[in-house]
Write a structure and sequence with these properties.
271 residues, mainly alpha, 0% strand
Length: 271
């Protein structure tokens, strides 16, 4: 009897494939949702122009249903981060604009952390665990070194905005950072930049007021290319970037001290 006709072999094969399918199913769902979002008008909806167009209705809804507005904003932010699609910057600005800098920062930090944890667990269960099992000794040793100081490394990556948010999520999953460490470092590390963008969002009224006449004239003419000009990268001034990099370096100081002490200990002659 051939292996293809062996019932025991078929059962063994099915037993191996089924867990793999269960691990990959969430990844497939995420990829399908991302494809759906990117082929829709999602990016146009998540813009400052949309906020300006519907500002009266949004303000009225939040005034009457503030908790529901916060919940809807949080769910939208979680979806954007979990799917790793563009729009988080505009949502952060909108959070400060709609709820103020402090409440906007709080709901954004919690939502971003929750969304990051979702995609982190999906990536970790799909490929991270199996990749670590198959990694060679050198790769495993590097992963163990990172895991030993995972909080500080991840805090550095979160504090410095030069590192894409979604790539940090995936990298942490691949080296098997513990979930509590991932959540703590993410939540703490994104607070400074989030507050800066929320504070900028709270001051968008002046930006909108300066352009509202031309914007309203544009929309009244029936044009669809009307824009409120605001570059979110202007929030990341050289001074703010320097401050965030300095905080990131401070986060790495314990790692440097730990490695220095370990090296000195290894260089001491045995007693």
């Amino acid at each position: 009897m051939s292996a293809d006709q062996d019932p025991a072999a078929a059962i063994t094969f099915a037993g191996r494939v089924r867990p793999l399918l269960w691990r990959l199913a969430p990844v497939v769902v995420v990829l399908l949702l991302v494809a759906l979002v990117l082929t829709s008008d999602w990016r146009q909806a998540l813009s400052l122009e949309t906020l300006v167009r519907h500002r009266t209705a949004i303000d009225a809804f939040i005034a009457e249903h503030r908790l529901a507005g916060l919940a809807l904003f949080a769910l939208l932010y979680i979806a954007v981060v979990a799917l790793s699609v563009p729009g988080a910057v505009w949502l952060t600005l909108a959070g400060g604009f709609l709820f103020g800098p402090f409440v906007g920062t709080l709901v954004t930090v919690v939502s971003a952390t929750f969304g990051a944890a979702i995609i982190f667990k999906i990536a970790q269960s799909a490929v991270g665990e199996s990749l670590m099992r198959r990694a060679g000794p050198r790769a495993a040793r590097i992963a163990e070194d990172i895991q030993a100081d995972a909080f500080n490394y991840l805090l550095f990556l979160r504090l410095v905005p030069a590192f894409p948010f979604f790539l940090v999520n995936l990298a942490a999953a691949l080296v098997a950072v513990p979930l509590p460490t991932f959540i703590a470092a993410t939540m703490i590390g994104i607070i400074p930049a989030t507050f800066a963008f929320s504070l900028a969002g709270a001051g968008l009224d002046s930006v909108i007021a300066a352009q509202v006449a031309s914007f309203q004239a544009c929309t009244a003419a029936g044009r669809t290319d009307c824009r409120v000009h605001f570059d979110p990268t202007h929030v990341l001034t050289p001074q703010l970037m320097a401050a965030l990099v300095a905080l990131g370096i401070i986060a790495l100081i314990p790692v440097v001290v730990k490695r220095w002490r370990a090296r000195r200990q290894a260089q001491r002659p045995p007693q």
